[in-house]
Amino acid sequence: MIVLKSEAEIALLRQACRVVAQAHDMLRERLRPGVTTGQIDAWVEEFLLRHGARPAFKGYRGYPATSCTSVNDEVVHGIPGERVLQEGDIIAVDIGAFVDGFCGDMAWTYPIGAVSELAQKLLRVTEEALYKGIEQAIVGRRLSDIGHAIQQHVEEAGFSVVRDFVGHGIGRAMHEEPQIPNYGPPGRGVRLKEGMTLAIEPMVNAGDWRVRVLEDNWTVVTADGSLSAHFEHTVAVRPGQAEILTLL
Ligand code: MF3
Ligand code: CO
Q: What are the residue ranges spanned by the domains of the chain?
């Protein structure tokens, strides 16, 4: 069942999303060579707690940290730790937090110093694909129009869309119905309505779409070792144009 939110509930969700977006803003300036992924996680946790937010990932199915930090060929769910960022790396940071009973969720992939042309293109195309998907999150469209728009943009650029992980409804729970694949035919699935709140999150590989999970049972990497990027916004479905809740 898809839980529709009232305007009052969307206002609460907006608060959670704002804190998550602010946490990303705080990070943006601090990410540089020499920083460890564990340091990033500590900054994020401290920021969330100081802003009255509760980390949504910590303890979720036993996940041990506040953020996910996925470097280079890591697709999603990289666990923060001792890894030191190097010039030329790309790092996806995923942050979720609860404020007043609602969960905001946002991921962004950042370049560390100067990165390769390929990495620059991957970041640009994946961010563009996120916005192509968001353009479809309007009243009257069907659910699969989102994933179709994402896939089309990604594949035109010669990249591939990860199939094993999907976007999701979001609200009082981090993961609500519906699941939102980042691929597929247009015109299928439920019709989008006012009151639906969605986390749209394309994961894009520079090479093949296949992935595998490391022995830590969390870190997802590309099967072929190619670079991967992840961008996510939490949005509210509106007539004509979606409202991006994780935008400052
Ligand atoms: N943004 C991710 C998601 O929507 C983050 C989940 S990480 C987990 O599923 F550790 F909480 F699982
Ligand atoms: Co998410």
A: 7-244
Inter-residue contact 151 to 159 (CB < 8 Å)? no
pTM, entire model = 0.98
**Selection from 187, 229, 227 nearest residue 208 by Cα:** 227
Q: What is the pLDDT along the chain (248 residues), one digit of tens a residue?
A: 999 999 999 999 999 999 999 999 999 999 999 999 999 999 999 999 999 999 999 999 999 999 999 999 999 999 999 999 999 999 999 999 999 999 999 999 999 999 999 999 999 999 999 999 999 999 999 999 999 999 999 999 999 999 999 999 999 999 999 999 999 999 999 999 999 999 999 999 999 999 999 999 999 999 999 999 999 999 999 999 999 999 99
199 CB less than 6 Å from ligand 1? Answer: yes
CATH class of the domain at 7-244:
alpha beta
Give the Å distance between the CA of 168 and the centre of ligand 2: 6
Atom of ligand 1 nearest to the CA of 65: 10
